[in-house]
């Protein structure tokens, strides 16, 4: 079945107009813990193997090398793992060397950054989160795992679950946005899909959840920068998606580059050992990020007298290695401090044999669980045949269309008429390269469908004019001229618009402007793209702006100029087809924003679940928490916001009880009705607020959401369940508390939901 047909089927009435049956909420299903206890047979095999290992062999297992480092000699000596090697023949060769020529025949674990697809590239994770549909994330990871495993890759460095309030930070594209609950649901869905019930299966992989922890909140939005926060803030906002991923069965975790309250992520025993391993019962292993262990050294670097340094919590390489291992890091990526100096560190009692054994045991445990000892090889001759298959491509198309968010649609500009001539204008209009977004895995430009190609396939009377160019270059090579820096092409764009009945402006960022090491101090549309919008507006032709980007942008000027705005993010290989599906109305744009869009960069950080203040923002008063040069306290577009081609009414919020014991549960129900004239999708959202607590609580907290498809006139009755996990919070002692008192409940279609009820949490 094609993606279009599948999408159209979702618009078929599920029942006659009236009330449809209640179904289990997908968010609650995704969040059900599925982590299993240790297998006694595997534990026995690990113990037997560990007892035979020399110190050198143990230290080798801790070593994680890149594709550019690893040699046959490393494999013979029993190195633990290799990442970023994607050639199936080379993977197979090294695995044969490791299994057949190392003394103990321990297989290698091959890993890769399969972030939003391996060869079949799905929307960037921030876009996928806009779907508010865990099945979108699950499809992404199901096919990403299948394609990765076919190449011999058995571990993926995904999902990235860092909550972020920083649109300047480029890696916000890799996560699920600003909300810990939405992030938790998507983290769990991705882990369960990639790993399945048993990740030793030939089409499954073990996930590595990253970046642990609080990497998404760097000062100034600059990548790799420091973070500083209270214990309650860390636990309530930033750790929940990691906990959800671990509960879902994630067996590896990647520690982060950043320092947390002065302690680098890969050298922080509180987060790694106290919380992750002891409190959460995590029995997998933690690998460092790229050279993150060496980066804990002071500068200039010592032993070795080269390489990364900077944090200044270790004097030299041996000290950095000891700090990492003692804090809880089990595997060292790229740098070789533990492999090179481990014997001396043991002799000097700077590390212990018991801790070394624990790290090796964790690594071997994952390899046994992955089935590598029993089935170490993937057939390289079959790797290509598993890539970019029709079912994966169709799923990518559906995912892309479900991830788009309609931000504005004045006068019914959308959907477009496929019978009218269309001009596609803009630097990203016939672009395949940027549609894949940052972290494009093994995706290739030729795999992608451009916007022009997708629209022309559904409307042959379509032209393309770039207007200007977006050239994807990295600093320091990039110049302003590379990012729509010239208006020389504007007259041609205006002429094309005048000849057409309707115009699609394809604008935004190059893929290199989002992602790792891609912080931006200005998040307006790059270059002269706003001027291009204004030129097209002056023609008087109806037009819509389609945005491709990996972060929230400041769109106040765009919103003032454009009658219609569709946020498409970086949609992946089926970008153009999915955009056309939405623009022509074959798919209803039902996505919602997983992150707030500020009016101006000076509002950052701005997020819906902020803590209250004694002087909350009031644009009509001076002595409040406001900006004197902004007429509003709100973001331009709030979390959870998104329009549709039809209309919905959410009503009848009811609670199952007026009271909930601290160990009990309560249900909240609402009805949602399609009051418009066409089928479409709505995302009903449930929020709570604790107005009186020992620690000031956020003004709103998302605790449930359901995306539903309704035919005209159709109504659905939706139910959400609230428990102690929803109404409780962590205090600054790291204790989870549930306090008696009132809990306000809100329901609606965004974080500004106005339907309200309340219940009492009681001591008994």
Describe this structure in words.
The chain is of the alpha/beta class and 764 residues long. 28% of the residues lie in helices and 18% in strands. It contains 22 helices and 27 strands. Strands 10-7-6-5-4-3-2-11 form an eight-stranded parallel sheet. α6 (88-101) links the parallel β3 and β4 (109-112). α1 crosses α16, α9 runs parallel beside α11 and α17 (451-458) packs across α21 (575-583). It is globular, with a radius of gyration of 26 Å.
**What percent of residues adopt helix (DSSP H or I)?**
25-40%
Main sheet, how many strands, which sense, barrel? Answer: 8 strands, parallel
Spatial gap, N to C terminus: 53 Å
- Nearest-integer average pLDDT: 96
Q: Rg to the nearest angstrom?
A: 26 Å
> What overall geometry do the principal axes of the alpha carbons give?
globular
Strand-pairing-aware structural class: alpha/beta
- For the largest sheet, list the strands in their spatial order: 10-7-6-5-4-3-2-11
Low-confidence stretches: 1-22
In percent terms, what proportion of residues is strand?
15-25%
| Total strand segments | 27
Number of helices: 22
Task: Spell out the blueprint of helices and strands.
Elements lengths: L2 H7 L9 E2 L5 H5 L9 H13 L2 H7 L1 E4 L5 H6 L3 E3 L4 H14 L7 E4 L12 H6 L3 H17 L4 E2 L23 H16 L10 E7 L18 H8 L1 H8 L4 E4 L3 E2 L2 E2 L4 H11 L5 E3 L29 H11 L4 E2 L3 H11 L5 H17 L20 H13 L2 E5 L12 E4 L25 H8 L3 E4 L24 H10 L2 E7 L20 H9 L5 E6 L7 H6 L2 E4 L7 H9 L64 E8 L3 E3 L3 E10 L5 E10 L11 E10 L4 E9 H4 L1 E2 L5 E2 L3 E8 L6 E8 L2
Parallel strand pairs: 1-23, 2-3, 2-11, 3-4, 4-5, 5-6, 6-7, 7-10, 13-14, 13-15, 15-16, 16-17, 19-27
Antiparallel strand pairs: 8-9, 12-17, 18-20, 20-23, 21-22, 21-26, 24-25, 26-27
Helix pairs in contact: 1-16, 3-15, 4-14, 8-9, 8-16, 9-11, 13-14, 16-21, 17-21
């Amino acid at each position: 079945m094609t993606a279009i047909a599948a999408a159209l089927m979702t618009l078929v009435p599920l029942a006659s107009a009236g009330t449809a049956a209640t179904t289990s909420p997908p968010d609650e299903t995704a969040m059900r813990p599925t982590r299993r206890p240790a297998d006694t047979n595997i534990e026995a095999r690990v113990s037997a193997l560990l007892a035979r290992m020399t110190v050198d062999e143990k230290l080798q297992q801790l070593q994680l090398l890149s594709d550019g480092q690893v040699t046959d000699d490393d494999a013979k000596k029993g190195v633990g793992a290799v990442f970023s090697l994607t050639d199936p023949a080379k993977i197979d060769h090294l695995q044969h060397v490791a299994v057949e020529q190392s003394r103990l025949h321990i297989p290698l674990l091959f890993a890769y950054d399969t972030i939003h697809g391996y060869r079949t590239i799905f929307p960037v994770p921030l876009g996928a989160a806009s779907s508010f549909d865990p099945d979108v994330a699950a499809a992404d990871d199901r096919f990403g795992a299948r394609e990765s495993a076919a190449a011999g890759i058995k571990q993926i460095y995904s999902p990235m679950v860092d909550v972020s309030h920083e649109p300047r930070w480029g890696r916000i594209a890799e996560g699920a946005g600003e909300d810990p609950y939405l992030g938790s649901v998507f983290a769990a869905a991705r882990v369960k899909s990639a790993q399945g019930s048993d990740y030793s299966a030939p089409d499954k992989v073990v996930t590595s959840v990253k970046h642990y922890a609080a990497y998404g909140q760097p000062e100034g939005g600059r990548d790799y920068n420091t973070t500083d926060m209270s214990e309650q803030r860390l636990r309530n906002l930033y750790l929940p998606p990691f906990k959800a991923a671990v509960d879902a069965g994630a067996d590896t975790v990647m520690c982060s580059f950043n320092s947390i309250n002065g302690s680098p992520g890969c050298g922080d025993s509180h987060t790694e050992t106290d919380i992750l391993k002891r409190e959460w019962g995590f029995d997998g292993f933690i690998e460092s990020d790229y050279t993150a262990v060496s980066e804990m050294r002071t500068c200039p670097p010592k032993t070795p007298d080269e390489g990364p340094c900077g944090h200044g919590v270790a004097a030299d390489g041996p000290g950095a290695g000891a700090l990492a291992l003692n804090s809880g890091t089990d595997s060292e990526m790229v740098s070789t401090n533990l492999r090179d100096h481990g014997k001396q560190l043991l002799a000097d009692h700077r590390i212990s044999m018991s801790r070394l054994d624990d790290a090796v045991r964790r690594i071997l445990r994952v390899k046994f669980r992955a089935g590598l000892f029993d089935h170490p090889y993937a057939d390289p001759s079959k790797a290509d045949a598993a890539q970019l298959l029709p079912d994966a491509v169709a799923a990518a198309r559906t995912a892309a269309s479900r991830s788009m968010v309609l931000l504005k649609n004045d006068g019914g500009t959308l959907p477009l008429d496929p019978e009218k001539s269309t001009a596609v204008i803009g630097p990203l209009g016939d672009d395949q390269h940027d549609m894949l977004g940052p972290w494009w895995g093994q995706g290739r430009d030729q795999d992608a469908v451009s916007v022009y190609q997708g629209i022309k396939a559904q409307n042959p009377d379509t032209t393309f004019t770039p207007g200007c160019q977006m050239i994807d270059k990295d600093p320091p090579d990039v110049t302003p001229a590379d990012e729509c820096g010239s208006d020389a092409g504007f007259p041609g764009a205006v002429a094309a618009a005048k000849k057409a009945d309707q115009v699609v402006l394809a604008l935004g960022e190059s893929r290199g402007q989002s992602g790792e090491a891609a912080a931006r101090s200005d998040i307006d549309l790059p270059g002269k793209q706003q001027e291009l919008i204004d030129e097209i507006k002056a023609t008087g032709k109806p037009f819509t702006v389609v945005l491709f980007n990996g972060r929230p942008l400041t769109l106040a000027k765009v919103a003032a100029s454009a009658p219609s705005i569709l946020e498409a993010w970086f949609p992946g290989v089926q970008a153009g087809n999915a955009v056309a599906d939405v623009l022509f109305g074959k798919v209803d744009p039902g996505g919602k924003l997983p992150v707030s869009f500020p009016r101006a960069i000076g509002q950052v950080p701005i997020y819906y679940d902020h803590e209250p203040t004694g002087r909350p923002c009031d644009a009509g008063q001076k002595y409040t928490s406001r900006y004197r040069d902004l007429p509003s306290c709100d973001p331009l577009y709030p979390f959870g916001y998104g329009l549709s081609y039809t209309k919905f009414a959410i009503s009848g919020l009811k609670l199952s009880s007026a009271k909930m014991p601290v160990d009990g549960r309560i249900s909240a129900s609402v009805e949602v009705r399609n009051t418009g004239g066409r089928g479409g999708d709505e995302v009903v959202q449930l929020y709570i607020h604790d107005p009186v607590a020992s620690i000031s609580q956020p003004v709103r907290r998302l605790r449930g959401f359901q995306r539903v498809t309704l035919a005209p006139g159709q109504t659905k009755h939706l139910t959400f369940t609230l428990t102690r996990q929803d109404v409780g919070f962590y205090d600054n002692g790291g204790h989870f508390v549930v306090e008696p008192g009132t809990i306000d409940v809100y329901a609606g279609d965004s974080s500004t939901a106005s339907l309200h009820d309340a219940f009492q949490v009681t001591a008994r």
